[in-house]
Design the sequence.
């Protein structure tokens, strides 16, 4: 179900729906099956939220849903609060949908790239063996001590270019940008692909090259052109979770295999 939803979203028909939702909702086609899948996932999220409500202990939050519910109660009388039920359902749905298939796809892609670039794989494993060894599981604390591994994971995301058009955004008001006027309620697609493949921002944009994220001394360096998690204030809500999952899973796989 998850693969079907995200597979449709990245298909030509999914692109058409993003551009002409008013038309696609009126035409027969696979999109209506996918809408049914999304509704099933939404019902699952609502069920889990209700279970959390029924067993909530404000003094001992268990996870994201508990923390959101507690904040909802605290801001119950705030009319401008963003912590309300519909936002909770939407956020849980986004985390569940976007955070499942995208992370697993990135890990699969990383493995295929490392099979092709065996020297890079060997260098990663050497670094992991030196810093962590084989006796314990990796943790996020190890990240700062694994600069080459961190650089490879970032380069996998850049090179994979998972969401070239990002997700559709809306302008909340009329905006003037570089001499152009973007009217209120316009649909905006940030072209992440154009940044991740920009010649002026990457030394070898069309090649897999972890050096894009390493300085002359082999230390990890950030690159402002790394926009795999979207751009602007409304970036990926699960970015920190995805970064953690990718690091822990990929390092664990290379540590053991």
Sequence:
């Amino acid at each position: 179900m998850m693969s079907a939803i995200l597979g449709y979203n990245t298909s030509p028909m999914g692109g058409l729906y993003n551009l002409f939702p008013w038309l696609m909702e009126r035409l027969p086609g696979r999109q209506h099956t996918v809408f049914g899948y999304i509704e099933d996932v939404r019902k699952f999220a609502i069920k889990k939220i209700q279970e959390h409500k029924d067993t909530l202990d404000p003094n001992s939050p268990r996870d994201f849903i508990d923390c959101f519910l507690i904040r909802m109660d605290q801001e119950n009388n705030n009319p401008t609060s963003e912590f309300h039920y519909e936002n909770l359902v939407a956020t849980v749905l986004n985390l569940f949908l976007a955070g499942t298939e995208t992370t697993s796809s990135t890990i699969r892609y990383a493995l295929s790239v490392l099979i092709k670039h065996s020297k890079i794989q060997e260098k990663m494993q050497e670094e992991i063996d030196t810093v962590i060894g084989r006796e314990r599981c990796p943790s996020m604390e190890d990240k700062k001590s694994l600069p080459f591994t961190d650089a490879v994971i970032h380069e996998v995301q850049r090179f994979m270019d998972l969401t070239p058009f990002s997700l559709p955004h809306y302008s909340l008001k009329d905006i003037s940008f570089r001499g152009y006027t973007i009217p209120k309620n316009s649909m905006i697609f940030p072209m992440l692909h154009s940044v991740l493949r920009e010649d002026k921002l990457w030394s070898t944009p069309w090649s897999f090259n972890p050096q894009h994220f390493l300085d002359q001394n082999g230390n990890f360096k950030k690159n402002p052109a790394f926009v795999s998690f979207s751009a602007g204030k409304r970036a990926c809500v699960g970015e920190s979770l995805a970064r953690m999952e990718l690091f822990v899973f990929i390092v664990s796989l290379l540590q053991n295999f």
About this structure: The CA atoms of residues 110 and 156 lie 6 Å apart. The chain has a mean pLDDT of 90. The longest strand covers residues 175-177.
